[in-house]
Amino acid sequence: MKKIYLLFIVLLIGILFAGCRVSVRTNLNAPTVPDNLGPVSGTTEAETTMTLTWSVSVDPKGGTVYYDVYMGTIETPPVIAMDLTSTSYQVVDLENETTYYWRVVAKNEVGDSVSSQISSLTTKAAPLGNAVYRGLSLGLTDYGGSGDLSATDDDAEEIKVTFENLSEDYSIQKETGRVVKAQIQNWLTTFVSDSKGDDVFVFHYSGHGFYERGQSRMYLSDGSDMSMSELRGYLDQINGTKIVLIDACQSGNFTNMSSGRIMSEEEMVQQTTRFREGVLSAFEEAAGARGTYSTPYEYYVLTGCAVDEYSNEDGYLNHGFFSFFFCDGLGNVGVSNPSGLFDATYNADGYGPNGLADGKLTHSELYHYSKDKVSSYFQSTYGENTQTIQGNHTDSDFIVGIVSQR
User: What is the pLDDT of residues 126-155, one digit of tens each?
Assistant: First the structure.
């Protein structure tokens, strides 16, 4: 009986070793491991079109070696190319700022194969490319006398200076003083013909505004008005992403156009609420007649409408509150030095619940910064707050501007 058991054990060991010899033999029959993968693992700032390379694998029997390439955004990437005979492969149209994992499998004619190690790379941020960054900034001061404003031209200048100090090389056309509808139409039309889907266009308005006949309206120097839907119609013709900044006020001297009378403060408070809501409503995303654009949304809108003239502008800031603190967040001077020159402080960078201090000023960061700073300044200066900043897509990480290294 012992001999039988001993024989059984010997046979079992023999089978196990035989199995091991088969596995080793299979490995020995496979080509050598493809290594020296390029780009090297951990590469950052990789191009979105690149050539992957690896070393030659040798078949021990001198046969032809074929290569399969696996690549994707998961650590077990799918195959993207098979049966290559060269030791390189070009990949195209990778996503920007994305980590990819890849490996190469070498195999011979009978199917013996061996894999390289998993390698990783991260592509660079999207380039600015040929995008054009432009805008129109309006600061209406001339309303024919009693409704004149004194700091809206300063708002237009600050918007121009602030955007033109960003890395994107914005070019902002500034128009101040007396402005009428035909001029706005003509100015906007000049931006249409050569616009492209990856362009960015800024529209800024600082002046009187009101809500009437179901629409928010810009009140112009000659007593006419332009509704937000009219403005939207002209901006739709400009390809690219649009940033819309509306800083409007209703002073005690501002006459309701339909009634021809001075509104009470309570009526003006109600109107400003409707005005802000009307601005956002006019720029809701809708499939239809609109320009092409490459960002998640076509329109990024911020608006502040104040009840009284002094709540739009005061002697200390000498600017509209919204325009001032928006520019402050985007790199211009703050409340401690309101009359100073552009100081590249970029206070909104990293601000707010989704903020990230990375030198890229987002729509969300600028919304939260402007909203909080306007509220804080108005409360500390006037003991109340009748001006609230509102916006659309307020959690968006759309980049309004990048910190300049100049």
Answer: 665 578 999 999 999 999 887 888 889 999
Q: What is the pLDDT of residue 285?
A: 65
* Residue among 327, 330, 336, 331 nearest 377 (CA): 336
User: Phi-psi bin for 350: left (phi > 0), alpha (psi -120 to 50), beta?
Assistant: left
pLDDT (0 to 100) of residue 286: 58
Distance, in Å, from the CA atom of 253 to the CA atom of 222, rounded to the nearest integer, reads 16
Q: How many CB atoms lie within 10 A of CB 360?
A: 19
Compute φ and ψ for 334, nearest 5 degrees: -110, -165
In whole angstroms, give the CA distance from residue 300 to residue 185: 21
Specify whether the CB–CB gap between 64 and 109 falls below 8 A: yes
Q: Which residue ranges of the chain lie beneath pLDDT 70?
A: 1-27, 126-129, 250-278, 280, 282, 285-294, 305-314, 385-387, 405-406
Domains and their CATH numbers in the chain? 31-123 (2.60.40.10), 133-402 (3.40.50.1460)
pLDDT digits (tens, 9 = 90+) for 194-216: 898 889 999 999 998 877 777 78
Q: Which residue has the tokens 């001297």?
A: 253
- For residue 232, the model assigns a pLDDT of 92
Quick check: 241 and 298 in contact, CB under 8 A?
Answer: yes
